[in-house]
Design goal:
- This protein is mainly beta and 364 residues long.
- The chain has two domains: 206 residues, Roll (Diaminopimelate Epimerase, Chain A, domain 1); 142 residues, Diaminopimelate Epimerase, Chain A, domain 1 (Roll).
- The chain is built from five helices and 24 strands.
- It has a 21-stranded mixed sheet that branches. The chain has a three-stranded antiparallel sheet with strand order 3-4-5, with no helix packed on it.
- The longest helix is centred in the middle third of the chain and has 14 residues.
- It is globular and about 60 Å long.
- Bound molecules: the ligand N[C@@H](CCC[C@H](N)C(=O)O)C(=O)O.
- Ligand LBFN2T5F binds next to helix 3 and helix 5.
- Belongs to the diaminopimelate epimerase family.
């Protein structure tokens, strides 16, 4: 039996705004301690394939009354219906915005929804909008700090799975998606993984953008960046959004990413004067010529469990610095991504998972 549960909690305490959550048992492998008490307040928890969710003050009801389709079709004014997805723990609130080219919520509302204590909790909010210039859809995204990036790699895999869900598509499908980084083409594969044509990397210093001096072909490869008195070896790559990749310091010390004090050093890269649009930063350890391990500090979102554009950018950086081949597995805190920078078309291809977490609603 499919089961849905709702809870109500306060989104922004001073204004007493209400937020309600709906969970479906889709993707759940077991519901060991779930006991229904339609009228009651009861603590319970349940397990999914990828996470453990606990909730209090919940009432529950059978999903026959509320299928995913009818749930997302609901159009009550003042209520926002959404679906939460994650790509390797990089999590997003997906909103069906196919009827308008204006985001259904403002940036400040996205900040509240992304709050992990007073909201739903997410690294960003993603809007599925009508396509432009002949594309199937447009994807826009707000970071958890409300800023709007050009692209999101894990997000676009979630986007593809979300479209398949709301369009009721099964099996292999690909879509053309207009983003701030241009045309992006995700393809849902038979095994459920999503392979994405992420387009070409941008290397010219002023286009990344960075104020660091470009070298060969004006790209910034193995340049020196002084952060807090320490001289780092960095390469700058844009995947539509800016990335600064480092394998270690200029004195030749390679990184041990597990030892890094990410929350101390990350913001200093993000807000460094050399990055006029701020930057995402990838701290990378080379395990072999086809295997990398990284931790990321994201612009506008902080430390996240994975960054798709970051994984693509760091393979480009690793190739440009002569450290790896063009096809690599990148281990992120949330799991691995397969990345290939193809010589034939100069495009980068990223393959990885995207998973539905739950359906929910929020009173705006
Ligand atoms: N996590 C994303 C990147 C999201 C945007 C980033 N924070 C930025 O501001 O550029 C990914 O998977 O690529």
């Amino acid at each position: 039996m499919e089961i849905a549960a709702t809870r109500t909690l306060t989104l922004s305490p001073p204004q007493s705004r209400q937020f309600s959550h709906t969970f479906f048992s889709k993707n759940l492998v077991s519901l060991p301690s779930l006991r229904f008490n339609p009228s009651g307040r009861r603590n319970f928890s349940f397990k999914s394939t990828n996470l453990r969710v606990s909730a209090t003050s919940m009432s529950a009801f059978a999903a026959e009354k509320l299928s995913p389709e009818t749930f997302l079709d609901k159009k009550e004014s003042g209520i926002l219906h959404f679906v939460k997805y994650h790509g390797l723990g990089n999590d997003f609130i997906l909103i069906d915005n196919r009827d308008s080219s204006e985001p259904k919520i403002a940036q400040e509302q996205a900040v509240k929804l992304c709050d992990r204590n007073f909201g739903v909790g997410a690294d960003g909010v993603i809007f599925a909008m009508p396509g432009v210039n002949g594309t199937d859809y447009t994807m826009r995204i707000f970071n958890s700090d409300g800023s709007e990036p050009e692209m999101c790699g894990n997000g676009v895999r979630c986007f593809a799975r979300f479209i398949a869900e709301i369009e009721n598509l099964q099996g292999n499908h690909s879509f053309t998606i207009h983003t701030g980084a241009g045309l992006i083409i995700p393809e849902i594969q038979d095994d459920g993984q999503v392979k994405v044509d992420m387009g070409e990397p941008i290397l010219r210093a002023e286009d990344v953008p960075t104020r660091l001096q470009g070298n060969k072909g004006e790209s910034v490869v193995a340049a020196e960046l002084v952060v807090d008195g320490v001289s780092w070896n960095v390469t700058c790559v844009s995947m539509g959004n800016p990335h600064c990749i480092t394998f270690g310091t200029k004195d030749g010390q390679d990184l041990r990413v597990d030892e890094l004090k990410l929350s101390e050093i990350g913001p200093k890269f993000e807000h460094h004067e050399m990055f006029p649009a701020r930057t995402n930063t990838e701290f990378v350890e080379v395990l072999s010529r086809s295997h990398l391990k990284m931790r990321v500090w994201e612009r506008g979102a902080g430390a996240t469990l994975a960054c798709g554009t970051g994984a693509c950018a760091l393979v480009v950086a690793a190739v440009l610095e002569g450290r790896t081949d063009r096809k690599c597995t990148v281990d992120l805190p949330g799991g691995p991504l397969e990345i290939e920078w193809k010589e034939e078309d100069n495009h980068i291809y990223m393959t990885g998972p995207a998973d539905l977490v739950f359906y929910g609603s929020a009173l705006l």
